[in-house]
Design a protein that fits this description.
The protein has about 110 residues and is α+β, with helices and mostly antiparallel strands. The chain has one domain: Roll (2,3-Dihydroxybiphenyl 1,2-Dioxygenase, domain 1), CATH 3.10.180. The chain contains 2 helices and 6 strands, in the order αβββαβββ. The strands form 2 sheets. The chain has a 4-stranded mixed beta sheet with strand order 3-6-5-4, with helices on one face. Strands 1-2 form a two-stranded antiparallel sheet. A hairpin with a 5-residue loop joins β1 and β2.
Length: about 110
Amino acid sequence: MINGAHMILYSADAEADKVFLRDVLQLPNVDVGHGWLIFGLPPSEIAIHPDQTNGKQEIYFMCEDIQAFVSDMGTRGVMCSEPRDQGWGILSNLTLPGGGKVGVYQPKHARPPA
């Protein structure tokens, strides 16, 4: 039934964040008209976490080596928080050019097949 997922990052500087996803993270993309880019993502997963409120969503990118990722981002002038072990993975947050933050982590948990 489901053949994909579409995620949205809202941004105070969408143009700068689109350039970041395209040029720094090098995500594949298509221009659907007038510079409106839609980015492809690697295999993804979704989990349900208990919370007192509904309608709250979070987006995280995953990588194989968080220390190498943070180091690479540093050489590109991208600010990332110091990686910290959360038990389920080693987490950092990167700051997008538009000021938003996105989590990036090296998972320690089992991953479903793509």
